[in-house]
Write a structure and sequence with these properties.
By secondary structure, the protein is α+β, with helices and mostly antiparallel strands. It is built from 2 helices and 11 strands; from the N terminus they run ααβββββββββββ. It has a 6-stranded antiparallel sheet with strand order 2-1-11-10-7-8, with no helix packed on it. The chain has a 5-stranded mixed sheet with strand order 4-3-5-6-9, with no helix packed on it. The longest helix has 30 residues, at 11-40. It is elongated and about 70 Å long.
Length: 159
């Protein structure tokens, strides 16, 4: 049976299959590298020019919005954490908000301020990030009262 199948496949079909698999491999490598590079980019705050009118004025580092995150971890009492300008949530010790949840990635999500609003963004986690029970596909604006779920942990944003 295998001999008949090998004899019935033309050299053209084998070449097409070989080049098709090579193209898929290149696509996979390109997408992987794009994902890695996107994960390495860091957003920086816009700098003010010297001599501008607002150069002497103190700008708020954190726009109005949530000032506290109440963390509801499974099996422990809720705890409150103050919100900083850019918080990475995850299991890694270097995260600004380290969480002890096996369903959370090392660097799972990011809570950040941009253009006077607050956003939450999934950082390519395995289990996803949910805002008010809606799975994130892109960064989403959040406000006090919103509930962000990462793994089995629920984060409640408060003023």
């Amino acid at each position: 049976m295998a001999d008949m199948l090998a004899q019935s496949v033309t050299p053209f079909a084998l070449s097409a299959l070989k080049y098709g698999l090579f193209a898929l491999l290149l696509l996979f490598i390109w997408r992987s590298m794009r994902w890695v590079v996107r994960g390495l980019t860091v957003e920086t705050a816009p700098r003010t020019r010297r001599g501008s009118k607002n150069a002497g004025a103190a700008e708020p580092t954190v726009p109005p919005g949530p000032s506290m995150v109440v963390v509801h971890e499974e099996g422990s009492k809720p705890r409150s954490v103050p919100v900083s300008g850019n918080m990475v949530l995850g299991r890694a010790a270097e995260c600004e908000l380290a969480l002890d949840d096996t369903y959370i990635s090392q660097q799972h999500a990011r809570l950040f301020a941009k253009d006077g609003s607050w956003y939450v963004e999934d950082l390519g986690s395995t289990n996803g990030t949910f805002v008010n029970d809606q799975r994130l596909a892109s960064p989403a604006m959040v406000q006090p009262g919103d509930r962000v779920r990462v793994g089995t942990t629920v984060l409640e944003l408060r003023r």
